[in-house]
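REQUEST ID: PR-0412
SUBMITTED BY: lab tech R.K.
PRIORITY: routine
TASK: structure prediction, single protein chain
INPUT:
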Amino acid sequence: MSLSLSIIVPFYNEEENIKDVYKNIISILDTLENEAEVIFIDDGSSDATVKLARELEDLDDRVKCVELARNFGQTAAMMAGIDHASKEIIIAMDGDGQNDPQDIPRLLEKIEEGYDVVSGWRADRQDKAITRKLPSMLANKLISKVSNVHLHDYGCSLKAYRSSILKDVRLYGEMHRFIPIYASWQGAKVTEIPVNHHARTKGVSKYGLNRIFKVLLDLMVIVFLQKYLVKPIYLFGGVGLTFLTGAFLSGVSALYLKLFEDISFIQTPLLLLFTLLTVTGFTSILMGLLAEVISRTYYEAQDKTPYLVRTIKDKKTGR
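STATUS: complete
OUTPUT:
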């Protein structure tokens, strides 16, 4: 039996592209035997995008339009699409016409091979080299190194996911690009394939260089969640102990100068440094203890466990 598909496409002021995107998606779905739905998410567009999406929804039972109350950003729009998807496989793509629905069958082939996430790789990316391609290349290398999930193109929206691995994922900031990392934490098998990429011919790009800084900050969050979510005291406590060590050395130095060099405490900044580092060190440790309480509340209130079970053999059935 063919896997059912939910294709989610966020739009923001893409009135010039939405009909072409719809036609290209439907032309592929008509060649497949998979049961499918197409979810258009209007992210607070100020043009006719939502009007056109509603018209397509009325014309085609496979189309569902989710209209957000205002512009929340691509990650929130993607999360809305995931929340309203009802099929086994979720395929996400951009609404600017640069992703190619012709790649959908190839994504599905990889899913059927046993992968849980298949990420698109825009090997021949049709974007400006300096403002888009170079920052993206550097960011991808950094993210791969930090997360240990090695992909060439985290920023490519064209990806296929098994819906089961997304059920506990919550996205914020610019974190939609990090879904493969979240999935990997859940034990998912992640791979990538080269996909087509077209130059934008209609509309205006919504991306700017300021997104680089947002991605870097979100990457810091990812690192923290990956390494310290269960034991935040290791981070805050480690920082606190480092400051206290510095305070101890400053205090010893100040005493040595006072006792053996006859240099008054007020003649050097060491006493002030000792006080500052001591206060900062104890504050960091206390923050770590508070983070421990919050972490336990997070797990216990939601009945979460700090581990994931892949399989357990049933002795009665032998499976």
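NOTES: The chain has two domains: 5-227, 233-301.
REVIEWED BY: pending
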